[in-house]
């Protein structure tokens, strides 16, 4: 029995050591393959016309982020406040910048934390702003259906992002390069 436990500990100790550098990389690759284009396409729908469209969001951007407020002003985004503009611009930039930071592994923990906040706000906007409250879309935890877009799907997104907050970007990342370069300076 002792030999079996020793083999088990040796094998899974090796897997754990390999996993310490492989799993954060895998998490970033999974994020890239499932959510990068989703968020970048969403960000593109929010850009205004021309080169300065990053500072002048489309009406659709306001409709996505502040649907009830935009409706209240007759879909005239110029009637909304500077606060609304700032939130829409920041949200649009976040859809491009935060995923890029996660993919290259730069400030990964902060970027993943920012994306968790983004997913929470996106979900709350879907429920309270867009009225997505039917059980099929909303989903329910601990039920037998795993396909609810808001609770079920986004819980997986948040878990992946939480993993990156806890573990960081891993050995193959800009964070790791910067950390290695900083080590001699700290010592």
Describe this structure in words.
- The chain has 187 residues and is mostly helical.
- It folds into two domains: 38-104, no CATH class; 106-187.
- The protein has eight helices and no strands.
- 20% of the residues are buried.
- The N and C termini lie far apart (46 Å).
What share of residues are in beta strands?
under 5%
Q: Helix amount, in percent?
A: over 70%
Q: Tally the helices.
A: 8
| Oligomer status | single chain
In short:
Pfam families: DoxX. Helices cover 74% and strands 0% of the residues. With 187 residues, the chain is mainly alpha-helical.
Task: Map the helices and strands.
Elements: H1 2-46, H2 59-65, H3 67-72, H4 82-104, H5 108-129, H6 135-138, H7 149-167, H8 174-186
Helix pairs in contact: 1-4, 1-7, 4-5, 5-7
List keywords for this structure.
single chain; mainly alpha; 74% helix; flat; membrane; DoxX family membrane protein
